[in-house]
Amino acid sequence: SVEGINPPLNITFLKNPSINGSDPQCSFWNPILDDGYGDWSSEGCEIDENYNNSQDVVTCFCNHLTSFSILLDVSPEIEPTEETPLALVLEAVTYTGLIISIFCLIITIISYLSSIKLRKSEHGQ
């Protein structure tokens, strides 16, 4: 590959309007990374510092020639859930059940350990 281009090469990508992605990164596939399996790298590339997410194009400045791509974060933004009265009641029931279960487990273990008859192998006699 050709490296060390000065001034950096200006590469402009048109964003796909059907993909609602954010945080674009100018990247290329580097087959040497990850023990020879390859991985995306942004080494030697920078995104235009004037970029904002409402633009239809992404401009990259790279100092080498390879196969470039734009990687976008397309994961949905998860909004915090509301603390509804039902959610609070369900949370209280869950913790109450958990506490009762742990308490009963402790009683069962103590009963088993304190009773010699239960630990003997002569069951039913």
Helices and strands in order:
Elements: E1 2-3, E2 9-14, E3 22-30, E4 39-41, E5 45-47, E6 57-62, E7 64-65, E8 68-73, H1 85-114, H2 116-119
Antiparallel strand pairs: 1-7, 2-6, 3-4, 3-8, 5-6
Task: Offer a quick outline of the entry.
The chain is of the alpha+beta class.
Please supply descriptive tags for the structure shown above.
single chain, 125 residues, alpha+beta, three-stranded antiparallel beta sheet, 2 helices, elongated
Order of helices and strands: EEEEEEEEHH
Strand content bin = 25-35%
Estimate percent helicity: 25-40%
The count of strands amounts to 8
Q: In angstroms, what is the radius of gyration? A: 30 Å
Stretches with pLDDT under 50, minimum 5 residues: none
Largest sheet: 3 strands, antiparallel
